[in-house]
Amino acid sequence: MEEYAIEIINLHKAFGQRKILKGMNLQVKKGETMVVLGPSGTGKSVTLKHITGLLEPDAGECRIFGENISGATLPEREKLRSKMGVLFQSGALINWMTVFDNVALPLREHKLYPEEEIQRIVAEKLRLVDMTVAKDNFPNDISGGMKKRAGLARAIASNPAIILYDEPTSGLDPVMSNVINELIIRIKKETGAAQVVVTHDMSSAYMIADRISFFYGGQVLFTGTPQEVQNSPNEFIRQFIHGHTKGPMILETKN
Fold first, then answer.
1. Looking at residue 79, which CATH number applies to its domain?
2. Other CB atoms closer than 10 Å to residue 32's CB: what's the count?
3. Which of 10, 129, 150, 228 has the most CB atoms lying inside 10 A of its own CB?
4. Residues 157-186: pLDDT tens digits?
5. Domain range holding 239?
6. What total of structural domains would you count in the chain?
7. Which residues contact 233 (CB under 8 A, 6 or more apart)?
C-alpha cells in the first residue's frame, strides 16, 4: 500500500454555522507537485492550515507520511511540521531583518546547525532562487517578486520533504510569475519534495502541476493531470478554467 506524503481523509471543518470542509479527501504522492484550484471560499487555505496542524478538524484525519497530525501531541506535531516549508502569499518577511537573516531565521530559531553551517546553507538557498545579490537588503528595499523568492529560500532552508505554496504568483507580473513557476519546477527536481500549490493562475497550474485537484463546495470535485483538467467535460471545471460568469458554479459576490 502506497504511503503518501499527505493524505487527507474525510475532513470536515466548520466555523460557527458555516461549513467549509465537507468530507475532503486528497492524496499527494511523494515527490509530486499537486496544484489546488477552486473558487474563493471553497476551503483551499483552510486545507493548508490542516496540513500544517494549525487547525483541528471537526472530523476526519490529515496524515503526513502516514502519521495523523490532527491527533498528534504538541511535540509530535512540531516534529511533523519540521518536515514542511511554507511560502506565504505575501512572502511574510520580517522587515527589520536582512534577506539573509530572514532565510537563516528558522535554522537559528530551531538551533538545527552551528552558525558556520547555517551561513553555508543560506548562501546555497539564496543561490538556488537567484537572490545572492540581494542578501544584505531589507524587505522594504526589494520588489514583490524578490520578496517571494526570499520567502521561498526560507521555506526550503531546512530541506523540507513537503513544501506548501499559498498563491505564489499573486500580485506579480507575467514575467515574474514565470520566474516563480520555473523556481517551483527547479526546486522539485533538486529536492524531490512533495509540493502543494494553491493558486488561481491557470497558466501557472498547467506549467508546474503533475496533477491538479479542483475544490468546490468543501470537497474535491476532480483530480487529474493538467491535460485531463483541460479536457474535462465537467461543467464546474470548464466554467472555472475559462472564467465564464455563467454556469453551474455559485459565485460569491459582495453588494
1. 3.40.50.300
2. 17
3. 150
4. 888 999 999 888 888 888 888 888 998 999
5. 1-83+190-255
6. 1
7. none
